[in-house]
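retry 2 of 3: previous attempt timed out while embedding farnesyl diphosphate. Reduced batch size to 1 and resubmitted. Inputs unchanged:
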Amino acid sequence: MIPQDRIPRHVAIIMDGNGRWARKRGLPRYYGHKVGVESVREAIRTAIDFGIEYLTLYAFSRENWKRPGKEVEMIMSIFRQVLTREVAKLHREGVKIVVMGRLQDLSSDLRKRVDEAMELTKANSRLNLYLAISYGGRTEIMDAAKKMARLAAEGKLRLDELNEEDFRNFLYHPELPDPDLLIRTSGELRVSNFLLWQIAYTELYVTETLWPDFRREEFVKALEDYASRERRFGGVKAS
Ligand code: FPP
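retry 2 succeeded.
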């Protein structure tokens, strides 16, 4: 049992390794993504069961558009299916869905489903599920800086009075608290342009497990590991 005060409020996950999972089995990459959806379902279920308030999943980076057209199409079609078939169930379970990133990059069809899912679930509060799609951390910071510069040029913002919390208000979702725990699957020791502003003091957990194999038991292992850590936020250890 993990004490409730040791449960992270916000868990962010870099879901990596779908392609390798499929290759190891001699299957096309597509199957890795398909099976990865089951891991997404289990992650949502586990987050609800443990009382995690915010779960952010890195589903597609801005850099991922550089993948072969066929693979991009398949991933987009999976998002479309999930947003069509699963939203009603998630809504019943009290999940609020927020898609974050450059939504203008998405096809109008997918964009429509994203808007509908967000509208339908906007009043839910059991779990806040953020799906990062066409997301890039540097782009988010650049977009914030541009918005600020525009306001400053119009004389509506005094730059020398700004602090870090004011800056946060220009990010895509200022209401999203910083992640307490960032999980990355498939062993890579990188943050890959994910939530760069928000992870300044986040605890990192990397597992060799590939995303399609990352199920409840693996998630619980990450939570147990997090619960055993002493967070200091740059200060000294509390005694
Ligand atoms: C990472 O594996 C996976 C992706 C970039 C694809 C997106 C995730 C899914 C389709 C799972 C379902 C998600 C949602 C939100 C329903 P990779 O292809 O980078 O694997 P590799 O590093 O082994 O090539």
